[in-house]
Design a protein that fits this description.
With 219 residues, the chain is an all-alpha fold. The chain is 77% helix and 0% strand. It is elongated, with a radius of gyration of 26 Å.
């Protein structure tokens, strides 16, 4: 049985007791309180374990609270499942409607470049992943978003590639190597072509403006 959190003096006392036990590394007593149904103790024990890189134990401790619908526990569990590479459970929870699990799964897939699965996840959950997608600076994530019809991602990606071309043309070795790597990947061809066309158009506009300015000087 889990003792529910509430706005009572008793609840505040239980929170303070759990906090003090964690601060004093009384993990055994915290565990006893957690087993007796104290949510505060369970949460503090899970955090105490995670802080000491005992992620597997933290997962086991926090899971009952997440399963009971505790929002913070659900967030922590999703994060720790991703940290521990528990992809099967993370996928199950994401498929079951867990918003934190969905975001953590998307981040894990992006970081490990599992792009086919990430593309499908982004296609299946466009709205739920909109805020996650907007926070991403990973070029592969932006490319996938652009391919799925995100116009903002396409424009941002195009501008980024154009700037990368400018730096490479100016002699930046890192930019040149990055472009070479992208050029060897067929998934990037259409975006590189558009970026080159965009950069050429900007240069033409600048040259035209310069000619116009010089012409005005003689009027």
């Amino acid at each position: 049985m889990i003792v529910s959190l509430g706005d009572t003096a008793e609840d505040a006392e239980r929170w303070w007791q759990a906090y003090q036990l964690a601060e004093n590394d009384q993990a055994g007593e915290l565990g006893e309180h957690a087993e007796a149904g104290d949510e505060h103790a369970r949460r503090q024990l899970a955090s105490w374990l995670a802080d000491r890189a005992r992620t597997e134990e933290a997962i086991e401790v926090i899971r009952p609270l997440a399963d009971a619908g505790d929002d913070v526990a659900e967030l922590w569990l999703a994060r720790w499942l991703a940290d521990a590479d528990h992809l099967s459970e993370l996928r199950q929870r994401a498929a079951g409607g867990s918003y934190p699990a969905l975001h953590e799964l998307a981040s894990w897939l992006a970081d490990h470049e599992h792009l086919d699965e990430l593309r499908q996840l982004m296609a299946d959950h466009r709205e739920l992943l909109a805020s996650w997608r907007a926070r991403q600076h990973h070029m592969n994530v932006r490319r996938l978003a652009a391919e799925l019809g995100d116009e903002d991602a396409r424009l941002t990606l195009q501008k980024g590639l154009a700037r990368l071309r400018e730096r490479a043309a100016a002699g930046n070795e890192h930019a040149r190597r990055s472009l070479d790597e992208l050029a060897g990947n067929p998934d990037w061809q259409q975006f590189l072509t558009r970026a080159e066309a965009s950069l050429g158009g900007e240069q033409d506009d600048q040259q035209s403006a310069g000619k116009h300015e010089r012409a005005e000087r003689y009027l």
